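Tip: read the tokens left to right.
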């Protein structure tokens, strides 16, 4: 049975506020992390296409952003996830400019792992994440039927270096509590997101190098990042 967000949980809600440096000075200003409103879905997808598709480690290695078919696949996946109303957006207080986005949905034990895409590039990326997820064995490891999952975390480059990604991840905690989820788990594919996740309290469930992944399946070859780690990490929410 597909998990759905209760109508009793107000949407959109603000889940976290924090202070970080302003754009033009060392002064601390307030930011907020909230549900991504429906009227900003297209803006969020544009943000992810501009930054995540280009900058994320596996995407870089495969040249995802340069392949129109692959981009069509990932955009279609994001559009399928957003109506679940679980994705998060970060704004600076007093501004409607998107600072960062985390595309989220809820993984369920009953989900079928048979997603098929038009692009060999995105199929390989998706299947890599599925492989790492299966090795982590989240449902049995934590004895849960559902958990908060992600398919992309990105911060606008001009806002990077302020701990924004860490605070977006931290916002998952009150979100999970509000909707009744006991766990958030994600495949963190690069050192920056892995560091941010560790700061919030995510623990490693399964870790593998990209070089090792290439030996599992020749499609899981990510040139230039063979020594980097791909990690499935989880955070219990009480």
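Filled-in amino acids:
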């Amino acid at each position: 049975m597909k998990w759905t967000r209760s109508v009793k949980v107000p949407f959109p809600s603000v889940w976290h506020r924090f202070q970080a440096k302003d754009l033009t000075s060392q002064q601390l200003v307030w930011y907020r992390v909230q549900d991504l409103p429906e009227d900003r879905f297209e803006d969020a997808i544009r943000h992810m296409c501009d930054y995540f598709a280009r900058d994320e480690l596996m995407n870089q290695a495969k040249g995802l952003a340069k392949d129109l078919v692959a981009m069509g696949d990932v955009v279609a996946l994001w559009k399928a996830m957003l109506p679940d109303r679980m994705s998060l957006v970060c704004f600076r207080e007093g501004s409607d400019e998107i600072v960062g986005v985390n595309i989220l949905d809820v993984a369920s034990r009953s989900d079928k792992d048979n997603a098929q895409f038009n692009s060999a590039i995105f199929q390989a990326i998706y299947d890599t994440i599925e492989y790492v997820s299966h090795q982590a064995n989240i449902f049995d490891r934590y004895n849960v039927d559902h958990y908060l999952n992600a398919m992309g975390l990105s911060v606008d480059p001009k806002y990077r270096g302020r701990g924004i990604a860490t605070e977006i991840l931290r916002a998952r905690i009150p979100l999970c509590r509000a909707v009744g989820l006991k766990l958030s788990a994600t495949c963190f594919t690069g050192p920056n997101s892995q560091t941010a996740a560790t700061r919030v309290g995510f623990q490693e469930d399964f870790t593998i190098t990209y070089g090792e992944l290439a030996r599992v399946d020749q499609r899981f070859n990510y040139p230039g990042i063979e020594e980097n780690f791909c990690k499935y990490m989880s955070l219990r929410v009480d």
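The beta strands are 14-21, 28-35, 88-92, 98-108, 146-155, 183-188, 203-209, 229-236. The chain has one domain: 14-236.
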